[in-house]
Amino acid sequence: MTFEDLHLGSIVVSTVRNAPVLLFAAMAGLFAERSGVIDIGLEGKILASAFVSAAVAFTTQNPWYGILAGIAVSVVIALLQGAIAITQKGNQLVAGIAINIAMSGLTFVVAQYFFQQGGRTPDLGEARLGEVVLPGSAAVADVPVLGWIWTQLLGGHTVLVYAAFALVPLVHWVLYHTRFGLRLRACGENPHAADAAGVSVERTRYLAMLIAGVLCSFSGAYLAIVQSGFFLRDMSAGAGYLALTAMVFGNWRPFYTFLGCLMFGFFGAVQIQLEGVDLPVVGRIPGALIQMVPYVVTVIVLAGLMAKSVAPKAIGVPFVKSR
Amino acid sequence: MQPAVEFRGISKHFGAVKANTDVSFTVAKGAIHGLVGENGAGKSTLMSILYGYYQADGGDILLDGQVRQIRSSQEAIRLGIGMVHQHFMLVDNMTVLDNVMLGTEGGFRLASHRAEAEAKLREICARYRLDVDPLATIHDLSVGVQQRVEILKQIYRSANILILDEPTAVLTAQETESLFEILKLFKEQGKTIILITHKLQEIMDITDTVTVMRAGRVVGAVETARTSKEELANMMVGRPIENNLPRAPYSPGKPVLEVKGLQLKDNTGVSLLDDIDFTLRAGEIVAIAGVSGNGQSELMEILSGMRLPTAGSADFEGKPLPFKRHDPDGLPLVFRDLGIAHVPEDRLRDGVVKNFSVMQNTFLGYQDHIKGRWGLFDFKRIAERCAGLLKEFDVRPPNPDLRIGLLSGGNQQKVVIAREVLAKPKLMLVGQPTRGVDIGTIEAIHTQLLALRDAGVAILLVSVELEEVRALADRILVMCGGRITGELPINEFDTTRIGLLMGGTHKS
Amino acid sequence: MTTNDLPRWATAVALPLLNLLSALLVAALVIHLLGEDPVESMHILINSAVVNPEGLSYTLFYASTFVFTGLAVSLAMHAGLFNIGAEGQMYLGGLGITIAMLAFDATLPWYLLIPAGMLGAALFGALWAFVPGYLQAKRGSHIVVTTIMFNYIASQLMNFVIVKFLIPAGEQNTASRVFSQAAEMPRLSDWFPVLGDTPLNVSFFLAIIALVIYGVMVSRSSWGYKLRAVGLNKHAAHYAGVKISAMIVVTMLISGALAGLGAVNSIMGSTHYLSLNFVGGAGFIGIAIALMGRQHPVGIFLSAVLFGALTQGGFDLSLEKPNIPPEMVIFIQGLIILFCGAMEYLYAPVLAKLLKGKQA
Amino acid sequence: ADPKLGIVYDAGGKFDKSFNQSAFEGASRFKKDTGINFIEVQASSDTQAEQVLRGLARKKLDLIASIGFAQTQAVQKVAKEFPNVRFVLIDGVAQGNNVNSVTFKEEEGSYLVGVAGALASRTKKLGFIGGIDIPLIRTFACGYAQGAKSVDKKAEIVQNMVGTTAAAWNDPAKGGELARSQFERGVDVVFAVAGGSGMGTLQMAKEKGKLAIGVDSNQNHLYPGTMLTSMVKRVDNAVYDSFMQMKNGTWKAGVTAKGLKEGGVDWALDANNRKLITPEIEKKVLGARKDIIDGKIKVIDIRTGAACPA
Ligand SMILES: Nc1ncnc2c1ncn2[C@@H]1O[C@H](COP(=O)(O)OP(=O)(O)OP(=O)(O)O)[C@@H](O)[C@H]1O
Ligand SMILES: Nc1ncnc2c1ncn2[C@@H]1O[C@H](COP(=O)(O)OP(=O)(O)OP(=O)(O)O)[C@@H](O)[C@H]1O
Ligand SMILES: [Mg+2]
Ligand SMILES: [Mg+2]
């Protein structure tokens, strides 16, 4: 295989297809953190919703019930996190990490108890989400370029992929062009100011956590119901942390965060294609080293281009009323 | 006529602290009512109860004769109460417009209400002659303008009762004046204003009635016209306040600091300091007067090693100060070791670590000087020294283990000043030493600074308070636009002339 | 949430105990749902983790590693740096040991070899923390992100190095060769046979010493004072003359070195070879320990022992109770962190009310 | 009396969809056939492996089966301490005259599926997806490549590894994504040696209508129609046999390398993939099988230090 064999088209499509897991989670994190609550517990929520949505989808043989159940669980966890961060005024980092660890254990235990397959759910089979075939796909399928764009790049994905991409402008709109967004940002920046202006910081933050719970659940559902077709222990494999990274990378702004997610997807796809390829000059790079590509690139980009990320000022600080 | 606000037997305690005890007084509709008292007297607590932040342990609040339960700021806002907090309640990275709209957006979609709000805001600005750009971002604005934004917020919400907690603490004389103009306009419209301030002159200038608090209780309520500053001060502190503190005759020694052609440009190339030259001698206090934001802060930062000049030099005791090339990291320690002490302007940001105890804050910057055996802290010695310091400088409460963040601003300031004084410096840089501090404490701080001067220390004082400048300085430098626009000895003190120089009229 | 109203013993002892009990109660509920006897299970857990001397010895063995990773995270936390990279730093520390051993274990006597291994561990751990520290100090690159990235990079690098260079020819096991006996940390069971044949070794004392040094340095030295000032208020630290960039870099170097030293217990104290993924999450547990222990040496020690006990007791539990998979322990760990670390004041209002009622 | 038996899984756990699970199945079959029970434990770290082996040895077990090469050192050490306890180590070689080390000639079985794959492939591009880049997995890959190239010298092998941490065995999304990417590059037969991640690969093949080859146990039943075959590695038999020998008193220490000849590895042909295996494929694969058993074909084992010829 040679360098020319890199399939750019396939890289792009793969980027698009891999983005939703990170995208949903990163947008979830965005809501939580812009409201001032650190959400290091994305990983746990992804895992819990992945398990529950797979389990319910399998049991009911209906992916939509699975997704709904996943939402419910993820929301419950997010609200628990909210209760700790907002009402209890506990340590938000600890809460997030605790949730990640607890979910990693609990999903296995419960899955094992119900399905007896080593913490795996049975194959969903028909209970997975189908791919959307755009109208006219058959007609253009053989047209060069256009056919590829229509059937593979734009078409041929599940609805969740479209939802994930549509989410970015939506989140942007909510954040910057609605009352809720204004209040949310104020709570994350200076909750005392929001409070003095008559905004209920608690309610705003709870709402943000609720939204975070809902969005995060799609990440898990996508992983289980779309990408894999079953649940497997620890299947989130660090996606929550990567989403968090993308968000920090994107300076807590939806569009840049989106770029961060795409960057991980893109370099992940490039890395897949680079494995075993003879590159000019360097020759064949060992697989383990090629796997570094997305991470090394992130560090370089962070160090070189986007120095100084500025977190919402009040992030992680419990809001205590006082002047 | 019904009073606008009536407090009836309000009590509030925090743990063992009785912040308010049986506080009762009334505020007449359409009046400007002053509220004065020492730091920690309970003024802010009382206002916070009125604004719904705290619930009183006992007592009632009556608005227009009706008992009201105010459980949250939302309810207070609904009842037409507005509050301008001492620490601005603004979201730094948002525009003025967004800050004003926050909480009263008008609907879910901002876009459909923004234009309307902006028009209304511009109209208010015009009517009240407030010069504020609605689309400017808060962190680009000076404190004075931020203050105006706070006022704007209240006008926008058409608050009928306006609480201002030490609004003038960070304002210049001109800014204060224009604030008072607005308050008078308010009053004409029949609105009620409660004004907290430590500056008794302001009380005399603008209020109709005044309530004095001490240790959580009301100790006096008078009509302003029938009282005097001296009487108020006496009521507040429980003893007369000395206006003219004794000082040794002016006999400056050898030059301690010679600043030569100091320049500073920010990274966009804008000049912040330009060609600063002056000399400071042992045993004199030189005050830099000027509207804040004209380079005084930067000058102090450079002289204390916190910031590097882009050009120029400064000799300290005949030797040039060792400015580094690129990075001021660590430089303040070098300067301090030379004998330069610094009371920073923004004490909460630079001067103290809020989450350290009072004791730990008494050696911030001098941490390397207090090593005992093994190079470790000798806590016994530190504690002894700290106890002495708290006593000598009358820090209240004199509890060394309290987080300093829990001390009132005035007492925090006493700790900072004590720390710097006890370092026995040769040069003392003092920025806004009495901001937000009550008159009793001001007296104490001024006494300390004068004693230092009399002991032969050179003091460079930055203050926007002309009263303070007059009380302390031997010589006055006036700064404007990053330049020194004039110099005059204290016996030629002249408010009008200084005002002109501060406005930029060049050396005459 | 105010604890002002509570006496010291209540916040220091009663609340943590109540929280621990709550966590165990939830765990017991799940165990009951799985069809096992919770009381018996708890009995097994406690018996095998602390009562039985051999079990206790294993508990302390695991705790020794956790103390180091916990210290690594705690120290950085004091400077306001959230070092998520202890996992990777410890992994690299293992490489440092291995290089020292491969080079010297045939020639040096034990009293030189062990310090050499420790030096290698500290050096490589520090090295791996240096880049994120430097980037944070000089470029403002968010340390959380860079340390997460460096964990991934570490595992890829180590995979490469072990497979390519360290596996002895003809061996299956993805591990280096076994080091010579001179490189073994002396075991405590050599002096206290009651501990049984367990890997508990002098690293445990090293951990205690590290805790003491950490405690003294952080709260009684001017360096520690500056460290905390940087973490609490950078402006004031600058005012106080602290070289902030240098402080950040140095703190990360020490933090990385501490994480690296965690490998000493695992490798020189137990396995005597470097293997793929030998860290096994100890770095992440370090985060939990630092947070739960409030970065206080005593707190770190207690948390480390608690997690050591869970590792050991949970292992025996799953051994004796086939219906309770090892993952159950992970869940219990999460619960304990949740209750003791995040919801620490859950019972404060209740307790305050109870106490008040008594006084009145 | 019945022998007292134990089995120790490595960090992957007994449901790893790989050799641990296979061992578990072998032990379970033994239990079903003989009614003799066994103790099972999972050792999550090398330290724990030693701890648990010692613990079981103290309980005076007769035979302990240690699954996975990660337990090599632990077995070697504990076996020395307890000369009366017998050990069988799967996938690794430990010294000791109370240890039976069982390794597999994965390269031989992989060779066969490589042959089948190359014959079934239209594009002559074959995919290989491994869990982690370690010698064991490379052995599969190399045997597979040798088999494929024996059919068609120009056959191309595209190889990817899922990751570098334990998570790499549990990442079906990545396993599927790698497969998809390989398919897009023209691959039409993929061999997955990645534990749980491989499940994603097999499933993706089914979705895309490509062929997949399973591993360890016979996975043909998972997706009949797209499962070309499976490279079975009879860890289950090794455990079963060992237990049985213990029961019958014929157990012997030593080192056994189980290849095609010994029934340690093989390809799987059953009703589920009958339709996909054309007579030509069957003939060629069986031919190669015979040649390997007869020693006419030598499949290179890269673990001996040899370079992979393909
Ligand atoms: N949140 C609180 N918790 C505990 N004690 C408090 C709190 N707020 C105020 N106090 C106590 O109440 C007293 C009154 O404080 P308050 O802020 O009302 O004083 P003040 O008159 O506004 O002082 P200043 O002039 O410095 O602003 C203080 O001495 C303080 O000890
Ligand atoms: N959480 C708290 N606990 C105890 N006392 C508090 C608390 N917060 C504030 N206080 C008290 O409230 C009083 C006022 O505090 P604040 O922070 O408003 O300072 P301040 O006096 O307003 O400062 P300034 O000098 O700038 O006017 C202080 O006496 C302080 O002791
Ligand atoms: Mg106040
Ligand atoms: Mg005040």
UniProtKB/TrEMBL annotation, chain A:
<dbReference type="Pfam" id="PF02653">
    <property type="entry name" value="BPD_transp_2"/>
</dbReference>
<feature type="transmembrane region" description="Helical">
    <location>
        <begin position="93"/>
        <end position="115"/>
    </location>
</feature>
<dbReference type="GO" id="GO:0022857">
    <property type="term" value="F:transmembrane transporter activity"/>
</dbReference>
<feature type="transmembrane region" description="Helical">
    <location>
        <begin position="206"/>
        <end position="225"/>
    </location>
</feature>
<dbReference type="InterPro" id="IPR001851">
    <property type="entry name" value="ABC_transp_permease"/>
</dbReference>
<feature type="transmembrane region" description="Helical">
    <location>
        <begin position="64"/>
        <end position="86"/>
    </location>
</feature>
<keyword id="KW-1133">Transmembrane helix</keyword>
<protein>
    <submittedName>
        <fullName>ABC transporter permease</fullName>
    </submittedName>
</protein>
<feature type="transmembrane region" description="Helical">
    <location>
        <begin position="6"/>
        <end position="28"/>
    </location>
</feature>
<keyword id="KW-1003">Cell membrane</keyword>
<keyword id="KW-0813">Transport</keyword>
<dbReference type="GO" id="GO:0005886">
    <property type="term" value="C:plasma membrane"/>
</dbReference>
<keyword id="KW-0812">Transmembrane</keyword>
<keyword id="KW-0472">Membrane</keyword>
<feature type="transmembrane region" description="Helical">
    <location>
        <begin position="286"/>
        <end position="307"/>
    </location>
</feature>
UniProtKB/TrEMBL annotation, chain B:
<dbReference type="InterPro" id="IPR003593">
    <property type="entry name" value="AAA+_ATPase"/>
</dbReference>
<dbReference type="GO" id="GO:0005524">
    <property type="term" value="F:ATP binding"/>
</dbReference>
<feature type="domain" description="ABC transporter">
    <location>
        <begin position="257"/>
        <end position="506"/>
    </location>
</feature>
<keyword id="KW-0067">ATP-binding</keyword>
<keyword id="KW-0997">Cell inner membrane</keyword>
<keyword id="KW-0762">Sugar transport</keyword>
<dbReference type="InterPro" id="IPR027417">
    <property type="entry name" value="P-loop_NTPase"/>
</dbReference>
<keyword id="KW-0677">Repeat</keyword>
<dbReference type="GO" id="GO:0016887">
    <property type="term" value="F:ATP hydrolysis activity"/>
</dbReference>
<dbReference type="InterPro" id="IPR050107">
    <property type="entry name" value="ABC_carbohydrate_import_ATPase"/>
</dbReference>
<dbReference type="InterPro" id="IPR017871">
    <property type="entry name" value="ABC_transporter-like_CS"/>
</dbReference>
<keyword id="KW-1278">Translocase</keyword>
<keyword id="KW-0547">Nucleotide-binding</keyword>
<keyword id="KW-0813">Transport</keyword>
<dbReference type="GO" id="GO:0005886">
    <property type="term" value="C:plasma membrane"/>
</dbReference>
TrEMBL record, chain C:
<feature type="transmembrane region" description="Helical">
    <location>
        <begin position="12"/>
        <end position="35"/>
    </location>
</feature>
<protein>
    <submittedName>
        <fullName>ABC transporter permease</fullName>
    </submittedName>
</protein>
<feature type="transmembrane region" description="Helical">
    <location>
        <begin position="110"/>
        <end position="131"/>
    </location>
</feature>
<keyword id="KW-0812">Transmembrane</keyword>
<keyword id="KW-1003">Cell membrane</keyword>
<feature type="transmembrane region" description="Helical">
    <location>
        <begin position="330"/>
        <end position="348"/>
    </location>
</feature>
<keyword id="KW-1133">Transmembrane helix</keyword>
<feature type="transmembrane region" description="Helical">
    <location>
        <begin position="88"/>
        <end position="104"/>
    </location>
</feature>
<dbReference type="InterPro" id="IPR001851">
    <property type="entry name" value="ABC_transp_permease"/>
</dbReference>
<feature type="transmembrane region" description="Helical">
    <location>
        <begin position="143"/>
        <end position="167"/>
    </location>
</feature>
<keyword id="KW-0813">Transport</keyword>
<feature type="transmembrane region" description="Helical">
    <location>
        <begin position="298"/>
        <end position="315"/>
    </location>
</feature>
<dbReference type="Pfam" id="PF02653">
    <property type="entry name" value="BPD_transp_2"/>
</dbReference>
<feature type="transmembrane region" description="Helical">
    <location>
        <begin position="200"/>
        <end position="219"/>
    </location>
</feature>
<feature type="transmembrane region" description="Helical">
    <location>
        <begin position="240"/>
        <end position="261"/>
    </location>
</feature>
